[in-house]
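Task 17 of the worksheet. Students: predict the tertiary structure of the chain below and write it out as structure tokens. Keep your answer in the requested format; marks are given for formatting as well as content.
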Amino acid sequence: MKFGLWYTAVGPFAFPDRATELAVSAERAGFESLWTGDHVTVPAGYSSVYPYSDTGRMAGDGAVPMGEPLIWFAHVAAVTSRIRLASGVLVLPQREPVLVAKQAATLAVLSGERLILGTGIGWLAEEFEALGADFPGRARRHDEYVAVMRALWSEPEVDFRGEFVHLRSARLSPRPASGSIPVIIGGHTEASARRAGRLGDGFFPAKGSPEELSHLFDVARRAAEQAGRDPAALEFSVHDPSVAEPEAREQALARWRDMGVDRVILSPPTFDPDRLVEFVGRFGAEVISRD
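Model answer:
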């Protein structure tokens, strides 16, 4: 089992000294990956419903500092050597895809190909509006943008004519030596599961009971088969705060293993910097080193 730590560029960890401390501590403790969310802007008074809270509102109502994922990863990549850097998730359709491909490729090269690009379609209409982006067409844009990026990472010269992107003899350098960057699809619906199966290297539903996620994993696998892809190659990640609690941990991990989950991602149980670094070290000693 691989273990990731989520919301790592949030609050005090959006700033350099604490970001460095957390990243170095997580790597030393044996965490496989650092994950962080993505919002360029959260307009005050938004009316869109946040899908990951019973209140429909983000924690802190969007006023908490949150570093831009790829730039934050560049900082922590320079002070670590093994831990992977995962966007969970980048709201891809509100960005220009050729620029994202360039940024991601540069970060992959500089970090020794430790980048995992988690992508999703987003939920905050007001943010799209602030960025001049297309909210109604975001699902179609997302899928086309993934295809564009993969072509730019793998081919020396790209001709592409889609619904939204037209490229002629486009070149991108440097490119990842492997010719690819893992793309993990975020979301918690059947549509996101089908998207993961059709075009993702993995699937990260950020919420859901084991029963709900088992169904979504099956949906993703069927979509992979229908697309002529190997369903066994899909990597499944889950978010489970209970794994941070010693009394619930073993049962939760056994359940996820039985479901074929590859990675469990923990939310920080605290955003107090000293207490979180202490938790990371303790979890590494009690769980990761014995797993």
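Marker's comment: The chain has a mean pLDDT of 96. The radius of gyration is 18 Å.
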